[in-house]
Amino acid sequence: MADLSLKQLRYFAALSRTLQYQRAARQLGISQPSLSLQIKALEEVLGGRLAERRKSGLILTPLGREVSVEVEKILRDVDALQRIAAPARDALSGTLRLGSSPTVGPYLLPRVLQRLHREFPDLKLLIRDGPPRELSEDLVAGRHDMILTQLPLPNDELRVQSLFREPLGMAVAREHPLASHREVRQADLAGESMLTLSPAYAMHRQVAALSEISGAILREDFEGTSLDALRQMVSLGMGVTLLPALYVQSEVDQADPDVVVVRMRPEQYRQVGLAWRNTSGYPPAFAKFAEILRSVVDHEFSAHVTLVR
Description:
The chain is elongated, with a radius of gyration of 22 Å. The protein is built from ten helices and 13 strands. It is of the alpha/beta class. α1 crosses α2. α5 links the parallel β3 and β4 (123-129). Helices cover 42% and strands 27% of the residues.
């Protein structure tokens, strides 16, 4: 009987998380046929099917679910061993699994990935998006090594390091009366319909709190699934909302904006940082990754956000 390989376990872990061959292969940087061959080889070693294709998508078999739990434990132990045994303790190498909030990662991580690829070619960074609540749960469960998300995180099992403070501006439709204001004060929002993301996002709490303080009406019949969705609803005159500075800088066309983003007074902002499990300690790889994130923010985004020291 053939032996299990670490490669097979990592490939199956990616498949069990995504439940999509195409997406798992893309995350792993391999072809879909190569992934299928490795999964088939693992099934032959274990003596049973691990996943089945259904009309609704891929599902794990009972054996697959049990194997998935054990594989995650094994990979956590292997990654911990690699970090301990790394000859260059301040270098980034091996595999790092990063969970990232979709309200943060897409506007920051592309620049970070360029830097990592250039300076640490031996590092394989596996990134998975999700709302902060889900990210925290997956981090505690060992499905991520670290997460990049909005703070705070109400979980005493996690260690947190703040990275930067990001202003939130008030987005209004171009024809809205507030669009001509240099700044928006809380009193200006009385009676306005306030749009927000779902409660799974930390920004939901901020928008709800601002609505209560200002007398705005929090719309619970429409909850955005993304910042893009919120912006589009604002542009259609369905309400107003807060948008983060990095998103505005990246996605709102300043020459011909579909919404106008006005500065808030007093300032509204959010804190963004990294988190990992307390049981992980503070590995050198985590410290180096945080250092690189700070450096990229300082060089690329200092006009829009403020580093937290």
